[in-house]
User: What shape does this take?
Amino acid sequence: MSKRRSAALTGAQGVSLAQKLLRERLCHQKLPDQPVGLDSQYKHLLELLRRTAVHGESNSVLIVGPRGSGKTMLLGCVLRELMSLREAQKNVLLVELNGLLQTDDKIALKEITRQLHLENVVGDKVFGSFAENLAFLLEALKKGEAPSKLCEDKTVEEILRRNFNGSKDFRSLHSLLFLAVSRVSVSTSTLREADLIEACRLISADSKANVLHGLSILELCLIIAMKHLNDTYDGEPFNFQMVHNEFKKFIQRKSHSIHKFEKPVVMKVSWSRSLFHAFS
Assistant: This one.
């Protein structure tokens, strides 16, 4: 019984497999090496699409003919050769639709989104029209070019290489990218070189120096006193009175350069900044 269950497909798996087979048969038919009897149409269509892909010309094509005359075969052969051209590959994103499967605008846009891998970008957004949805997809593609261009930047490459040489742990890269992405805002919606540079600076900064940044002279003196006690008693606990006594000794040695503070002031600073808790 268990063997039958493991061998049988679930309903969702069966539907997914059927969809895959239908797509292969309807959208990815095997093509001949060269269309027969359509040489002039083949050359004309290839040149038109090549100029569109390479030079950015705005062209539209309507292929008409009786059923079985080779319209799909002609287009498929042309696209196959076009996608083999290196100069065209970087500019072309090929989306294949079929009237038997994509029977209305909504289904067609859903398939376009799937083939362009933009499902996460669209999410649950609701659009008023086909044109609005398509414009959003095109804008998302434009923004998607930013990371690829960013990776080609020499400074960014050096930052990533330095991070990799410093640590092979994936968490180190995750921390770097998290700091960079956290700088993205509504006004600057794309990741920039400056974001990675700032993230690298924050990652490489001394964490202890960052903790001490912005502390007053009194707070720094208290930390020095606590550090001295911690070294003297080898990590054993100590109380505020011991810290205050050590602080007074330090002040007496530096009385010519440091103002004397009353005990209530010292206690207030210790508790307000949680300095005492950090060393107790």
